[in-house]
Every structure is written in structure tokens, then in C-alpha cells.
Amino acid sequence: MNSLIGTYDCKVDAKGRLMMPSGMKKQLASVLEDGFVLRRSVFQPCLELYPMSEWQTVMEKVNKLNRFKKKNNDFIRRFNAGARMVDIDGSGRLLIPKDLIGFAGISKNIVISPAVNIIEIWDKDKYEQAIDDAAIDFADLAEEVMGQDDDDHGIS
User: Fold this and answer.
1) H or E segment and range at residue 86
2) What's the predicted TM-score (pTM) here?
3) CA–CA separation, 112 vs 23, rounded Å?
4) Left (φ > 0), alpha (ψ -120 to 50) or beta: where does 144 sit?
5) How many whole angstroms from its chain centre is CA 116?
6) Sheet of strand 118-123, all strands in order from the earlier edge strand to the far edge
7) Which of 75, 95, 100 is nearest to 14 (CA)?
8) What is the DSSP letter of 136?
């Protein structure tokens, strides 16, 4: 699967169903049948939607951790907390479980934003705040992350 493109404003209904935007659904067409995993984000108050193939790639790394080390065991437990297998139904809807709605503080208005090969699902107000907070030092961050001089670590 290629990197996903496009940020979408959406709404969640009273039952926690999100109508997947047609532009995103088209990009996900090749992986719709396999299903998805929805989980809590590690770093932000949002949810992460993994196509099953991406989830399997991450789990291969997690499965290599030695569970007899407490830090690893704690990480595995926290990383998988709240993770759910989900599908996009025939009508193009995704049901977000109530505990995950609570974790992300999702109200009616949400933002779906790609994060390379997964999708972040945010409460709209929290997303706007995260973007505003990151804008303050984005130039410095961009230079540090993407401004490397060698071909392996930067864009030139």
C-alpha cells in the first residue's frame, strides 16, 4: 500500500459510526477486505487505524520482544490496550468502540488524517490544537528530521 493522502473533516453519529470519506475509501480499496485494527495512539490523544497488513508488520516487531523483561511486558500490554479489529461495512461506515471514543475525547466532529500508511482519527478541536502547537517549532523540526545532508536520511 502506498502512503495515504488527504485530511478529511467528518462526523460521528450517536452510535459511534464514522462514514469513511470516498477519497480515503478509494485509497484503501485494496485492503478493505482484510479489515483493520483500531487502537489508541502512543503519543497523541487520537486513534490509529491500521490496515491489517500494516498491523501485522508492527506486530512482527512487537513479537520479537522478550516478555521476560518487565519493560517489554509493560510495553506490550499498553501498546495493545484497547486495540480492536474493525471493518468498514458495505455502506462505508466504521464503528468506533465507546472506550476508544472516550480515550480520544471524540465528539461529533472529527478529522481523519493520514500518517504515512495508517490513519489517525482525531476529535476536530484536539486536532486543530495539535496542529497549532506543532506549528510553533515546525521549521526547526523539519530541518532536524528532513534536512540531513546524506542521501539516506533526508530529502534534497
Assistant:
1) strand 84-86
2) 0.84
3) 11
4) alpha
5) 9
6) 8-11, 109-115, 118-123, 47-51, 36-40, 84-86
7) 95
8) T
Residue 135's DSSP bridge partners are none
Q: Give residues with Cβ within 8 angstroms of 38, minimum separation 6.
A: 47, 48, 49, 50, 83, 84, 86, 94, 96, 97, 100, 121
* Ranges of residues in the chain whose predicted pLDDT is under 50: 156
Q: Rg of the chain over CA atoms, in angstroms?
A: 17
3-state secondary structure at position 128: helix
pLDDT at 3: 78
- Residue in the block written with cell 480515550: 103
3-state secondary structure 105-123: CCCCEEEEEEECCEEEEEE
pLDDT tens digits for range 77-93: 999 998 999 999 988 89
Residue pLDDT, tens place only, 18-36? 999 988 888 888 888 899 9
Residues in Cβ contact with 156 at an 8 Å cutoff, skipping those fewer than 6 apart: 149
> Strand 17-19 vs strand 93-95: parallel, antiparallel, or unpaired?
antiparallel
From the CB of residue 131, how many other CB atoms can be counted at a distance below 10 Å? 14
Query: What CA–CA distance (Å, rounded) separates 19 from 86?
Result: 14
